[in-house]
């Protein structure tokens, strides 16, 4: 597993600028390669102490007054999607990020909050609990002068994305993906609806147990959609990990190790070398048998941990082989 470039100094990597139709945003000031750590930012503050819904605005006021002047200005300069009688609360709602995918606690990260949305983003954000920072890594090449983007949604077809963005952020998306000509957009939407269906089926543990060949076929089909849609965000390592679990459940050491390696590499791209999720995937690469669900059946247990290609079969054909 290779490593990615060391981050350039942040002050040289991006700048805050006016973005037509979007207000403020971040532009790259140098060419940025995939895997580059663009931002590593501690929170100005977190919402961990905001436990009483009836006093949140008052409690936020105290927190903000306690910040250094520069931090106060950074917070108050952030966009408010819902101007009204609770300005501090609404700035949090407009700009806060959870401290991990399952956390109820959020934080304000001013630099990350300046990154505008795209349904085909060129960066991925992830909170690293080991160092208490929100980090942003580059997913695809970004030219100097190009806008840096994140996705505010979890994907899906354009009607679902647009509805969510309008409801929670108050804008209609005009990104590269949403601006496709109608026939191309319809094709993309059909693929992404299919992706949602496949993801649901892949996530059914009973099906993976009873019909692993069908589950692996679904993983292959979903991977093809992700390639067609140029998806490189955290959905990709999740797919690789799902495929790992199917093979590990049925004692296929060789393919389990390859899928774990691909999941690890994809997570490094999205989350960085030192993220706890990457450490967990590395352990599975080293010892797939250490996974808690290893060997529920011995269906594919005759494979000795080495790639054995059939006649005329390449690595991809072997990896996705579903003939049992």
From TrEMBL:
Organism in which the protein naturally occurs: Elasticomyces elasticus
Domain SET: 12-153
InterPro entries, per the entry: SET_dom (IPR001214), SET_dom_sf (IPR046341), SET_domain_protein (IPR053185), TPR-like_helical_dom_sf (IPR011990)
Protein name, per record: SET domain-containing protein
Pfam families recorded: SET
Domain of life: Eukaryota
